[in-house]
Design goal:
alpha+beta; about 90 residues
């Protein structure tokens, strides 16, 4: 049995995790989501012109690539920023 199935059977496992992307709340039921799955939560999806970052309190925020796996937990926060910044424009 893989770890996701074992975790899903734990009685103390939350039924859903509350996360935020750009200050909007989302409830997810998966234990792990990829960056691509996170990018599809907002309506419309986060486009390729924006990067997705995980907020790390007290540390450097982490860029979440499309194939990056993120373990869900309550209170996770993400924000988007332009993928390319052109100074002076």
């Amino acid at each position: 049995m893989d770890n996701d199935r074992v975790d899903a059977l734990r009685p103390d496992r939350p039924q859903a995790f509350e996360i935020k992307i750009d200050r909007t709340n989302y409830k997810v039921r998966e234990m792990v989501l990829t960056g691509g799955e996170l990018r599809r939560l907002p309506e419309p999806d986060i486009g390729p012109d924006r990067d997705l970052f995980e907020v790390v309190p007290g540390g450097s925020d982490v860029k979440i690539d499309t194939d990056t796996k993120v373990e869900m937990r309550n209170g996770l926060r993400f924000f988007t920023a332009p993928a390319q910044i052109n100074p002076g424009r």
